Amino acid sequence: MDSVTLVGRAEELGFVQRALRGARAGVVVLGAGGVGKTRLARELTESPASARRGTSVWVSGTRSAGGVPFGAFAHLLPALDAPLRDRLAMSMLARRAVLDAASDAGLLVVDDAHLLDDASAVLVQQLAMTHALRLVVTVRSGELAPDAIVALWKDGWLECVDLQPLDRVALGELVAELVNGRVDPLAVARIWEQTRGNALFCRELLRASVAAGRLALDGDVWRWRGGLPATGRIWDLIDARLSELDPEDRAALEVVAVADRADTSLLDGLVDRSARSRLTRRGLVEERAENGRSVLALSHPLFGEVLRSQMVDARRIQVCGRLADAADAHGMAGGPELLRAAGWRLECGGGGDPELLLAAARRALAGFDPQLAERFARAALATSGGFEAELELATALGAQGELQAAGELFTRLERDADLDAQRAAVAAQWSEMMFLNGGRAADAADLVSRVASELVPGRLRDELQVLEGVWRWLSGDRILVSEAEWRRIAGRGERMRLLVAFAVAPMYVQNGRISEALALLDGAAQAGANRREALPTVELALRSTRAYALWSAGRLNDDVTYCERELAAATAAGELEPTAMFAFCLGGALTDAGRIDAAIGSLRDGLAVFERLAMPMYVSWSLAFLARALALGGDGSGARQALELAERARPAQVQLMDSELGIARVWVLVAEGDMDGARTTALQLADRHADAGRPTEAARAFHAVARLGRPEGIADRLSELAAVTDAPILPLCATHARGLADDDVSSLRAAGEGFEALGCWLLAAEAFTAAAVGLRAIGQAASARAAGARAAALLARCEGARTPALTGVEAGASLTRRERDVALLAAHGIPNREIAQRLVLSVRTVESHLAQTYRKLGVSDRRELADLMATGAQHAPDHAAPA
User: Fold this and answer.
1) What is the distance between the alpha carbons of residues 53 and 809, in angstroms, rounded to a whole number?
2) Judging by beta carbons within 10 Å of its beta carbon (0-12, 13-18, 19+), is residue 877 exposed, middle or buried?
3) Computed over its alpha carbons, how large is the radius of gyration of the chain?
4) What is the pLDDT of residues 115-172, one digit of tens each?
5) Model confidence at 275, in pLDDT bands (50, 70, 90)?
6) CA nearest 219: which of 271, 269, 165, 183?
7) Tell me, what's the pLDDT at 739?
């Protein structure tokens, strides 16, 4: 599992290569242990790209040779009958031996020069001062190095580059290369968090994790399962480094390890400043800013894993007790250190204040960590936490998919609730579990409706009324709340404004009121950030609704940028539900953009987490999106399988998903070659959405009909829908459909320009392809080539997209609509008799169409036809005749 290529070091490699050609004698590469100094040096000497003549000389400093004069150069020195007593003569002999060995390449690499003996260090310095050859010298930062080595960069004899750990992106590339495959973002985030970009630690952690089955293939993607492995060379490497510490420094490092990125002011009285300075110089700890505060952290979290595993229970309990006491003394238990303070108190056996433990459980749920929330809730329950502790425990169990245990708790809590506030809280959290983890939207709505009817009018009743509206909308029921009523409820304060936005914004999006939805979300954004702990699911829903609004509007450039940012933040924080949500949202945006390969990867990442979290609605939704992406990529069998899984996973009470399942069916039929079936399905779907007052969803289905070769009358329907929504994509869809129906090149080019500006590259490619066909048909060859080139450039940005409208610019120009239908079915291996049955033609007519198709496209059989239809415009024959 060694990296074949040097990853993430192009800038540093370029600097070193320029330094070796510059006026100075070479370069010193400084960096922490394992950061990749040796790997960079080897790239210079071993890579074919280095293009150096001859064989470079390589010497390495070691602790064992550090006490022997010229010990690092011993392998270059000639055998002597008797040892030389004259140190000057020995130095001259060593110098000559090095120069002779490096005569071909003129390059000396000195690895780990901080470990050189003084004589060897002086020799390296003299070689640099005299420019006798070119040098690459690596030095571990934080280590005491001989004066002669320090002088290399301090006095300017060599250039110096300070090699930093890999950033997140580069580490992800390294991980993918090491396992020779795709790695899901959560696994990359886990590896980043543990290694902090240290290439050596990354490599060894991967070795141990793969061997232990912690990192394993799931289909064609590597995913993380379980905790960290407890064995492997990486533990030996870290243990060897920690064994160099004296007892005082190790004790200080243990406190930092247990504290786990605690506030520096909290540790001031627990970690001696001189010990902290020594540990910092050795590169074991670092002070850094996190969320606006200064924290003391281990340079690599893996140090903490080793230290904590080696601590005896009594020592760990002692440290936790001191940390918990310090948090209490500093008044930090209710601030950013809440989760740590509560955890320390539990670890030291001190029980703890039930209010503190309850607050910690709520904080953990707000951070989408239900396992930790369960731990704190159970501890609170054991310390007389009562009703509130049971409520948090039920919520934590439900969030982990333990629906039976959670349901039993909620049932008892509903029976035991004495106060209206308790009854409302139970109904709200129980209904949320029913919907998210059980897909029971109608049951959730009935629950909050029943409880609300038993409450006196007021804030609690209004809150349940809002939730009832959400669950009923999701289950396909009509919402009876007026806009005036929504405004009245929102006026009750920040919390109610958030809940109303949670309920109303997605309804606005579905009704085509995109600008109003976004304005509502903007108004709720700051309040949502302030109330994340109290309303974590609502706050996440508001953020994902923004992605839904941008996607429905067709603003794919904006949507992709937004989803990528949110996904990066969620994966960095290790938050499973937000990671899954934005991987799913990103997959939808990438699909519509035409970036099919990337979309499939993102959707599968989200799906894996939704399955792990036991969230059936989102499992089904993800599978429906995945089916459409696979179909657009030409994988008919994979798309059909995903669609069938989506339909089986679909919760019966959630009707909102029918739209995505319907459009997925359309494109699965296309991938299977059933064009008539796809058009019929799309028309039926469009009419249903239009009748139900869902203009953007109706428009998507109508536009699919036009894209599949039946544009007549579609433009008018799309124009009608565009008039009742402010989604910018709808007028473009109408223009596209009109251009297809009327062979109007101007409309097609205008649609292509508009689609491209929004980031809808696939639709833009289709529009310019049709424009090229139309221009060629009227004899404007130059303009046709320009439009075709524009289509090809857009298609090149689409990763794996294959739709009928992209079945070759030249091929598309030569086939009639019916010939294309027959050709697509034949390319899928459908026999002539079955094609005739599907298209209601005679077998003889099918044979005639195929003969015409072969002649026009310059192919001789079905195999060649299938190849051509699969490769599209890029490989269409030059001699295809116009229609």
Assistant:
1) 50
2) middle
3) 33
4) 888 888 888 898 888 888 888 999 988 778 889 989 988 888 998 988 888 888 888 8
5) confident
6) 183
7) 95
Task: Quote the pLDDT of residue 810.
Answer: 44
| pLDDT reading at 498 higher than 80 | yes
DSSP state of 564: H
CA separation (Å) from 148 to 90, 117, 123, 153, 216? 18, 10, 9, 10, 48
Integer Cα distance of 713 and 718 in angstroms? 9
- One-letter amino acid at 19 equals A
d(CA 267, CA 403): 41
Average pLDDT score over residue span 557-568? 95
> Would you tell me how many other CB atoms lie within 10 Å of the CB of residue 564?
15
470-496: string of b/e by CB count within 10 Å (b at 16+)?
bbbbbbeeeeebeeeebeebbeeeebb
Q: Which of 296, 304, 36 is nearest to 171 (CA)?
A: 36
Looking at 57-71, 483-497, 502-516, 579-593, which range is the least confident one?
57-71
Q: Tell me what the mean pLDDT of segment 397-421 comes to.
A: 91
Average pLDDT, the chain: 85
Burial of 311 (0-12, 13-18, 19+ CB in 10 A): middle
Phi-psi region of 106 (alpha: psi -120 to 50; beta: other; left: phi over 0): left
231 burial type by CB count under 10 A (0-12 exposed, 13-18 middle, 19+ buried) = exposed
| Model pTM score | 0.78
CB neighbour list of residue 100: distance below 8 Å, 6 or more residues apart:
none
356 touches 342 (CB < 8 A): yes
Eight-class DSSP state of 295:
E
Tell whether the model's pLDDT for residue 872 goes beyond 50. Answer: no
Whether the predicted pLDDT of 94 surpasses 60: yes
Residue among 577, 279, 615 at smallest CA distance from 441: 615
- Select the highest-mean-pLDDT range: 40-44, 156-160, 821-825: 156-160
Q: Note the pLDDT tens digit of each residue in 319-339.
A: 888 888 888 887 776 667 788
pLDDT at 431 (0 to 100): 92
Residue 5 is predicted with a pLDDT of 72
Give residue 391's Cα distance to chain centre.
Answer: 33
Given a contact cutoff of 8 angstroms between Cβ atoms, the answer to whether 258 and 306 are in contact is: no
Q: Dump the DSSP string for 843-865.
A: HHHHHHHHHHHHHHHT--SHHHH
Q: How far is CA 388 from CA 354, 361, 451, 539, in A?
A: 10, 10, 18, 22
Non-local CB neighbours of 745 within 8 Å, separated by 6+ positions: 739, 771, 774, 775, 778
Question: Residue 304 carries which side chain, given as an amino acid letter?
Answer: G
Q: What angle do CA 447, 645, 405 make, to 5 degrees?
A: 40
| Among 610, 542, 585, 566, residue whose Cα is nearest residue 399 | 610
What is the Cα–Cα distance from 282 to 62, expressed in whole angstroms? 17
Using DSSP, state whether 493 is helix, strand or coil: coil
Which residues contact residue 179 at a Cβ distance below 8 angstroms, ignoring those fewer than 6 apart? 1, 206, 210, 215, 222
Query: Rounded to an integer, what distance in angstroms lies between the CA atom of residue 208 and that of residue 229?
Result: 6
Q: H-type helices in 478-615, by residue range?
A: 483-490, 494-510, 514-530, 536-553, 556-573, 576-593, 596-612
**pLDDT tens digits, residue range 644-675?**
999 999 988 888 778 899 999 999 999 998 88
* pLDDT of amino acid 83: 58
* Structure tokens given for 657: 């998903």
Q: Please, are residues 673 and 824 in contact by the beta-carbon 8 Å criterion?
A: yes
**Nearest one of 422, 466, 464, 470 to 447, comparing CA atoms:** 464
Contact criterion met (CB below 8 Å) for 567 and 600:
no
* Residue tagged 């992209």 (tokens): 806
